[in-house]
Write a structure and sequence with these properties.
- By secondary structure, the chain is an alpha+beta fold.
- The chain is built from three helices and ten strands, in the order ααβββββββαβββ.
- Strands 1, 2, 3, 4, 5, 6, 7, 8, 9 and 10 form a ten-stranded antiparallel β-sheet that branches.
- It is globular and about 35 Å long.
- The two termini are 18 Å apart.
């Protein structure tokens, strides 16, 4: 976690996202009601029902301190999550590297889907994580990253 924060801080200084990063780092998130099974590394399998490009590794790691970090496939992402008043992820700080258009398109879809998350569901003996929007629709499907 410390390495990711240092890398994001360095990227932030280069590209001017310091205000957003500071907000994310200073915000307090509580994971007190989140099941221990959620606190793990997850590989993104589908976004809004569409399978991800198998050549683009997008991932998320939920940590016990109420933070999530990962990759959209090209850029790093980091932010808080909370299970108080509904499950929420973000706001996310995201680096801004130049990416191939197809990778960037998938990454933007992931970030948009994450911003709509209001609940989650664990399935298949906690090997599948479904992130749900306010209507209960699956917006991001993830599998346990072993």
């Amino acid at each position: 976690m410390r390495i990711i924060r240092e890398r994001l801080t360095a990227d932030c200084a280069r590209i001017g996202l310091c205000v957003l990063l500071a907000q994310v780092l200073l915000s307090s998130a509580s994971a007190q009601e989140v099941p221990a099974e959620l606190i793990a590394s997850w590989k993104v399998e589908a976004i809004s029902g569409a399978p991800v490009d198998p050549g683009v590794m997008a991932s998320m790691e939920f940590e016990g301190a109420g933070t999530v970090d990962g990759s959209g496939g090209c850029n790093s992402l980091f932010g808080p999550y909370s299970n108080e008043d509904g499950f929420r992820i973000g706001p996310l700080a995201v680096t801004r590297k130049a990416c191939p258009p197809t990778v960037l398109s998938q990454e933007q879809a992931l970030i948009k889907a994450i911003s709509a998350v209001r609940d989650f569901r664990l399935e298949a003996d906690n090997q599948q994580l479904m992130l749900l929007n306010g209507s209960g629709d699956v917006v991001v499907q993830l599998s346990a990253d072993k």
